[in-house]
Amino acid sequence: xxxxxxxxxxxxxxxxxxxxxxKMMPDxxxxxxxxxxxxxxxxxxxxxxxxxxxxxxxxxxxxxxLLGMTKSAISHQLRVLRQSKLVKARRVGKEVxxxxxxxxxxxIFEMAIEHFME
Length: 118
Hints:
Layout: H1 15-24, H2 28-41, H3 44-55, E1 58-59, H4 60-67, H5 71-83, E2 87-92, E3 95-100, H6 103-117
Helix pairs in contact: 4-5
């Protein structure tokens, strides 16, 4: 018999623990939204853009130059990031500057970097 550490060898659910956790679990819609957010983070191009914006507010041209990509490709990814409320835009004349949407996004990124630097 092969040991599998992911499977309990006894059938003895801990009802108090289950009920406590069940009460704290977000509703299905919130869980769906969280899963969608992680999908957005799952694309390396978007992660590169977020990393750049973590350092400085930038326009599409600057991001494209930094990452070696076309303005069209960057704009497409920024649209996804905006829809996910991870970045915001600020217009100055004919230019649009992008930055991380809020401190929550900054914290997510700081925590991710810290996690992988350990």
